[in-house]
Amino acid sequence: MPVQKLTLYRRYFKHGTFGELKDAGGNTVAVTVECPWLNNQKGKSCIPEGMYQIQRHQSPSKGVCLAITAPTLGVTLYGPSQRTHCLTHVANRVSELQGCIAPGETFGVIGQEWGVLQSRNALEQLLGLVGEQSCTLEIRGQ
């Protein structure tokens, strides 16, 4: 049965934003890496804290992933809005992201850059948890 809600607990650093994605029971389902908080700059900053909807999406460049939307926070898939195409997709390092979230199984260092490992496996697990329905994603600081 698909999950109804996931919560992302973030920690902010100059070199990136790192978090733990938990289900309603408090179980960690993935760790995450994002761009640092840079005042919500499109393509450079992680998205603001708040309540979002996530759902399966077929991206031309990222393949099957999860789209993150919250029109009240200025985040939509296609616009018009402040931020568009904010996704949860396969990546391992901040340098591979433009405002999206990359899931992983564990934290690690790749070529002297902090990030996440086993991103593809973690995304597959998330896709299975969310299923074909939308799911609430709460993003909050820790």
TrEMBL record:
Q: Which residues form the DUF5675 domain?
A: 8-129
InterPro entries assigned: DUF5675
Name the UniProt record assigns to this protein: DUF5675 family protein
**Species this protein is from:** Shewanella fidelis
